Amino acid sequence: MSRIAYVNGRYLPQRDACVNIEDRGYQFGDGIYEVLHIHDGHFVDTDLHLARLARSLREMALARPMSDAALLAVLREVARRNRVTEGIVYMQITRGVARRDHAFPRAGTAPALVVTARHGNAFPRDIDAWAAGAITVTDIRWGRCDIKSVNLLPNVLAKQKAREAGVYEAILIDASGNVTEGSSTTVWAVDANGVLRTRQLDDHILPGCTRAALAAILAENAVAFEERGLSETEFRAAREVFLTSATSFVKPIVTLDGATVGDGKPGPVARRLFALFARHADGDAHNSLSACTAPANGMKPHR
User: Fold this and answer.
1) Average pLDDT in the 44-60 region?
2) In the chain, pLDDT over 90 holds for what percent of residues?
3) Residues 251-273: tens digit of each pLDDT
4) What average pLDDT does this structure show over 84-106?
C-alpha cells in the first residue's frame, strides 16, 4: 500500500508529495513539528501535544494553519488512510513559501502544513527487553531548545554518535557539566540517595509531553520526584536512569558510556513507572480534548 501524506490541503501518495524549494522550512529551518504516538487506534496525550504545538507556534510567531479541531481531523485521516493503529503521526508547520530573505515574509503568507504517518511496533510489554544503553556527548545546541523547532542538526549528530556506538541514545552534557536531555528524549535518574530527579524546565530543554504525562501519573500515585538538575558526576553515580518520549515511553538505560548503571537491569522505580505508563497508554487515564471524543473515519479517540 502506498503511504499517504497531507501537504497543504491535499492527500497525496508520499512518493508524489513535495514542497516548494522556497519553503522557509527548507531554506532556513523556519518551522516547528510535533509527533503523536498512536496506540490501539488512538492518539496518546493529544491535549499535551496540541498545547505544546500552540506554544511553539507562539514562540516562533508562526500563524496557525487551522484550528485544533480541523488539525485533529487531518491527523485522523492521515492515520486512517495509512491504516496505522500502532505507530506515529508527524506534523510539520513552516512559515510558508516566500522569496529567500532572512526576515519574515510579508503579512498574509500562508503557513505550510505537512502530515505523515507510519507504522511502529506495539507498546512494549517486556521492560527487560526494552532496556538499552546510552552514551554522553557535549550539548552544542542553540539557546531555545524549549521550542520544538525543525532545527535539529546537533541532535542528528548526537544521535549518529549513539548509533555508531551501538546504543540507543546520546545524553547531552552542557558547558557547566550538567545533564540537559537526550538527543530526542527527556532524562530521568534515581540518584545515589534514592531520589527520583529530572531537570527543571527552562530554555535549554524541551518540555516533553511524555514527561508531563508521567509527572501527572507520579502525582496520582504519590510517587515523589524532584525537578532538579543533575551534574555529570551525580548522573554517573545514579542507581537508575531512564528516558521518556512519545516513542521511547519509559525506557530504562542500563549502560552509560560502556559502564553498568546500577546492577545492569531495569530498577524498581523504572519498572513501576513503566507499568503505570502502560496503563495510561492503554486508556487508564482520560486525557483527550473534547474535539477528540467522537470517532472520526475509524480512528478511536484516546480513552
Assistant:
1) 97
2) 91
3) 999 999 999 999 999 999 999 99
4) 97
Catalytic: which of 148, 161, 265, 300? 148
Integer Cα distance of 210 and 216 in angstroms: 10
CA distance 178 to 128: 28
Architecture of domain 127-284 in this structure: Alpha-Beta Barrel (3.20)
Active site residue 300: no
Closest CA to 162 of 233, 87, 248, 263: 248
What pTM was estimated for this model as a whole?
0.91
C-alpha cell read off for 64: 496557525
- Phi (first) and psi of residue 22, to 5 degrees: -100, 20
Which spans in the chain are helix H?
Answer: 24-28, 46-59, 68-81, 127-130, 153-164, 209-220, 232-236, 268-279
Q: Which of 136, 238, 255 is nearest to 188 (CA)?
A: 238
Q: Which of 88, 178, 176, 188 is nearest to 134 (CA)?
A: 188
Strand partners, 113: 93
Predicted confidence at residue 283, as pLDDT, reads 83
DSSP state of 280: I
Whole-angstrom distance, CA of residue 269 vs CA of residue 287: 24
Domain with CATH 3.20.10.10 in the chain: 127-284
The string of pLDDT tens digits covering residues 161-192 is 999 999 999 999 999 999 999 999 999 999 99
194-225 residues labelled b (16+ CB within 10 A) or e (exposed): eebbbbeeeebbbbbbbbbbbbebbeeeeeeb
Residue ranges, comma separated, of all CATH 3.30.470.10 domains in the chain are: 4-122
The CATH classification number of 4-122 equals 3.30.470.10
